[in-house]
Amino acid sequence: MGMYQGVNASEGIGIGTVMIAVDPDLTFEPHEVADAAAEKERYQSALAVFCEKTQAQADHMKTAVGEAEAEIMLGHIVLAQDPGMTDAINGAIDGGTCAEQALVDASTMFENMFLSMDDEMFRLRAADIADIRTGILAELLGVEVVDLSVLPENTVVVVHDLTPSMTATIDKKNVAGIVTETGGRTSHSAIIARALEIPAVLSVANSCSALRNGMTAIVDGSDGVVISEPDADVLAKYTAMAEEFAAEKAALEAFRGKETVTADGIKKILACNIGSPDDVANALDHDAEAIGLFRSEFLFMDATELPSEEEQFQAYRKVATALKGAPVIIRTLDVGGDKEIPYLHMEKEENPFMGYRAVRYCLDNADQYKVQLRALLRASAFGDIKIMIPLVTCVEEVRAVKELVEVCKAELDQEGFKFNPDTEVGVMMETPAASLIADKLAEEADFFSIGTNDLIGYTMCADRGNDRISNLYNVYYPAVLRSIKNIIECGVKAGIMVGMCGEAAADPLLEPLLISFGLEEFSMSAPSILRARKTISQWSKQECDELAERALSLSTSAEVKALLEEAAR
């Protein structure tokens, strides 16, 4: 019996027979090309076939999984046809390089560019580029890529890297679990695995060689553990756990369509975080009551020039209309000096996390920012759009954005456009500075939404991507809890809505404390919604207050977590 630790990417227990999916051999001999026109034609043919196959995968995914996941595949087509990439490849071929080498060089350049960025949405693009490179290279070399569409029942798929194109072909009823040697919780593969509801453990070192075809394996996607050749006792234990997990999941369905209320009847809002308008269908499928964070970056990332007011308006209107009057919080452009969006002409910085980014960049480029603010205001005529400012550290920033919003309102009024004159402007509370002046910001802002992902990192001075200090990136540290408590209480005292759109909002251990502090809106990824509704329903405010008092009296994160685990329901 062997036990292997990895990343818990998609929860659940899967038990089945291992099948190792071997990556195709994509080696080639680089050679000089005499007829550049014919070589470019060869590349274009391979690209066309790749796009055709990817479109078919997206169509399959739309019906088998959902629109949001299909969009990931459609994004591959956009990236593969990106003019920057195509021009680089054609230029290299004109210089005598073969299509294979031109593709590898150009795609590697783009991949490294995305990998150097701090925003995880951009880093996802690096994995997409690698996936595209594999697909087009396979076409150029006439090699078959991994096909997971025809598998025997109860297969545990083991693969070096589960790419979106592989997950797009999976027949979920035959896959018991997924194990990879690379990837993390936020990778597109993990997102798709969660949508497919297949237990997955990623980043299990050397799993392709440690596990063998035909052996029995248990994939514990909740704890991030893989067990090979389990003995009878372990197998019986995990079989019981799998049945319990399935029963729990079925029981959560009882909370579908219900109000989100505490045990003593205090109403809360359960919202969803989304990255594009196509994610809305999935949010509503999982019973979201609102959109607590719509990251507007997707519009800017997938464009070769600044998206027009009309393009932005259409995207925001689509979400507002779909929510039928329920609130939609849209975060304005959150880019930084680490993100090389060529048309924004941003300089690379030594320390982009603390540099020229988010609201700082937007206010410095007011004409460009006004395009987004005007589009948001116009969309407010079609639903309850709320504008959120990222990375605020001082009152001046909020006032400056509100002044710009007023300028945009006056312009739109003059031009005869409809908009909601009372559109709310709020603050994403994600810096220690914002937390320390939360009382002052509450006088300026119409609402708060706490971005715990950055708040934890900035408060603990710990990069969540750095394994050596990952123990410090933790919401249970007293410093982080005090910060969250102060933000919520200042907002509640000022009479404004306070929400949370970081990962911590979905943490069942933390939710009782958030209830105690007075959090009104909990925003999370779609699959977490029903469980959060159940957790919130199990606690009264008094019980939460008693637990919070005990938690805040403790000195270490380990003590806090142990207390919350002991109290968990």
UniProtKB/TrEMBL annotation:
GO CC annotation terms, alphabetical: cytoplasm
Entry EC number(s): 2.7.3.9
SUPFAM superfamilies, per the entry: Enzyme I of the PEP:sugar phosphotransferase system HPr-binding (sub)domain, Phosphoenolpyruvate/pyruvate domain, Phosphohistidine domain
Essential cofactor(s): Mg(2+)
Record-annotated PEP-utilising enzyme C-terminal domain positions: 251-538
Keywords: Cytoplasm, Kinase, Magnesium, Metal-binding, Phosphotransferase system, Pyruvate, Sugar transport, Transferase, Transport
Gene Ontology process terms (BP): phosphoenolpyruvate-dependent sugar phosphotransferase system
Residues noted as binding Mg(2+) in the record, renumbered to the chain: E430, D454
NCBIfam families: PTS_I_fam
Family to which this protein belongs: Belongs to the PEP-utilizing enzyme family.
The protein's name: Phosphoenolpyruvate-protein phosphotransferase
Lineage per the UniProt record: Bacteria, Bacillati, Actinomycetota, Coriobacteriia, Coriobacteriales
